[in-house]
Design a protein that fits this description.
Keywords: NADP, Oxidoreductase
GO molecular function: mRNA 3'-UTR AU-rich region binding; NADPH binding; quinone reductase (NADPH) activity
CATH architecture of the largest domain: Alpha-Beta Complex
Mean pLDDT: 95
Order of helices and strands: EEEHEEEEHEHEHEHEHEHEHHEHE
InterPro entries: ADH-like_C, ADH-like_N, ER, GroES-like_sf, NAD(P)-bd_dom_sf, QOR-like
Low-confidence stretches: none
Number of strands: 15
Shape: globular
Domain Enoyl reductase (ER): 11-324
Organism: Tianweitania sediminis
Helix content: 25-40%
Oligomer: single chain
CATH class of the largest domain: Alpha Beta
């Protein structure tokens, strides 16, 4: 019997309950995967609390990404075989489970040299970094970037990859320990926002030139300061809201601050086509297998302890990547 974390009513971590569920057989185009590791991401908190509406309503099984082994093929699936090690970052929810049915077109094979835990921990975060650095804004030698929450899971991947691309990489973090962690993962400069004004420090670091692009998953707390860190015609990329949603604002502020650009991208828009998903995964697996980007799983929780994992995530007690183990 399959077990899954289910949410019957939006709320805090206690809203998640481990239950037995009936899975059934894979439909045409689907595969049944036995999970070996499940990725934990802040977007899971948004769905649990109701900040994001679940596509199919309640009850819901959270989680977008996992790794595991193909156990059964649905009709018409020829790209995979039973026994294949696979990973996914699916648009639909349902990863917080011991087994899952998922469309074969959302699944990629895990290459040798990448562990199941690494794959589960990096698919959503790593492919997010891929589209941010290579497609939302093409980061290259000479680019100056600012990234908030540098010691988080996405941040540690981002710092390594951005440095590899030749950028000057500036980050922010909330403690001395997190500052050091980010510096060890590619960031040239890390600003401790609990004791420093990040806008002033960015101006000092760049000699007043400021940044070409700011990547911000924090939201409300950093929005205005982020705009002040951009050079004229710079790009503000908002891709999360861990401190709350950015309030409505008059777009005239973008003109006042130097004809700035703003975008709100999502991984599922960038990887909506199979060829884009494959290319994104290929680029990610390439930098990881070559050791350019190191994926260190810093926290592990049992699937049954998902509530505690969420408490620690929201309290900012976690660093880097975290997995749930069935």
């Amino acid at each position: 019997m399959t077990h899954a974390i289910r949410i019957h009513q939006h709320g805090g971590p206690e809203a998640m309950v481990l239950e037995q569920v009936s899975l059934g057989r894979p439909a045409a185009g689907e595969v049944r995967i036995r999970h070996t590791a499940i990725g934990l991401n802040y977007i899971d908190v948004y769905y649990r609390s109701g900040v994001y509406a679940a596509p199919n309503g309640l009850p819901l099984v959270p989680g977008n990404e996992a790794a595991g082994v193909v156990e059964e093929l649905g009709e018409g699936v020829t790209s995979l075989q039973v026994g294949d090690r696979v990973a996914y970052a699916a648009k639909g929810l349902g990863a917080y489970a011991t087994e899952r049915l998922v469309g074969a077109d959302q699944v990629v094979k895990i290459p040798d040299g990448v562990s199941d835990e690494q794959a589960a921990a990096m698919m959503l975060q790593g492919m997010t970094v891929e589209y941010l650095l290579r497609r939302t804004y093409e980061v290259k030698p000479g680019t100056t970037v600012l990234y908030h929450a540098a010691a988080g899971g996405v941040g540690l991947i981002f710092g390594q990859w951005a440095k590899h691309l030749g950028a000057t990489v500036i980050g922010t973090a909330g403690s001395a320990e997190k500052v050091e962690l980010a510096k060890a993962h590619g960031f040239d400069h890390v600003i401790n926002y609990s004791s420093e004004n990040f806008v002033e420090r960015v101006a000092e670091i760049t000699g007043g030139a400021k940044c070409d692009v700011v990547y911000d998953s924090v939201g409300k707390d950093t929005f205005e300061g982020s705009l002040d860190c951009l050079r004229p015609r710079g790009l503000f990329v908002t891709f999360g809201q861990s401190s709350g949603a950015i309030p409505p604002f008059n777009t005239g502020i973008l003109a006042q601050k130097g004809s700035l650009y703003v975008t709100r991208p999502t991984i599922f828009s960038y990887n909506a086509k199979r060829e884009d998903l494959e290319e994104s995964a290929r680029a990610l697996f390439d930098v990881v297998s070559k050791g350019i980007v190191k994926i260190n799983v810093n926290q592990r929780y049992k699937l049954a302890d998902a509530a505690q994992a969420h408490r620690d995530l929201e309290a900012r007690k976690t660093t880097g990547t975290t997995v749930l183990l069935p």
